[in-house]
Each structure stands twice: as structure tokens, then as C-alpha cells.
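Human:
Focus on the backbone:
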Amino acid sequence: MNDWVGLGIIALVVLLGLFGISRLSKPYDVTTEEFERRAQEGPGLLGAGLISIQKALDPAAERAAAVQEDFKAGHYEGEDEQGDPPEPGDGDNDGVNNGESDA
């Protein structure tokens, strides 16, 4: 008799767990205003804590976070931060050949 009671309790716990998982996995409706508000709020305290832990465990994650911030700011492919194109004559002139030899 005790075996059946124990088996019943285990079955009840499993069924409640499956029910809880099914309730959590259902999508819910989010209005456009609510979505935009949540997107503007940022990661929150828990998300920020997890990001800092990830940075400590994985040094490449810090660089990835910096690149993502650059993308959010509108800087792509290492462009200048002002968005201005480089001026002619600026930069590295190692590739320029004026006909003279280096010897």
C-alpha cells in the first residue's frame, strides 16, 4: 500500500511540473507600446549582473559587448565616430610610391 502512495505522490509532482512548464511556454500578447517601452528600458539589474559575470568568465564577451554598443550607436565596420569620411592625405602613407628607392 505504501508503494502506491509514494508512486502517486511522484506522479502528482511530475504532472504538476509538466503543467507548469506548459503554462510557461505559452506565448502571450504584447502591445507595440509595451514592447517599445521594454526595449527602451534596457537589460535591467539581473541582465546587467549576468553580463558582468559573462565578461569576467569570457574576455571576448567584453569586446563583443563593445561592438554591439557601436552597432547600436550606428557605427559599422570601424567607421569614424563622427560619420565623416577620411580627409585626403590622412592616414598611412606606407603604400605610396614616389619613384624613389628606400636604399
Q: What stands out?
A: Residues 89 and 98 are 14 Å apart (CA to CA).
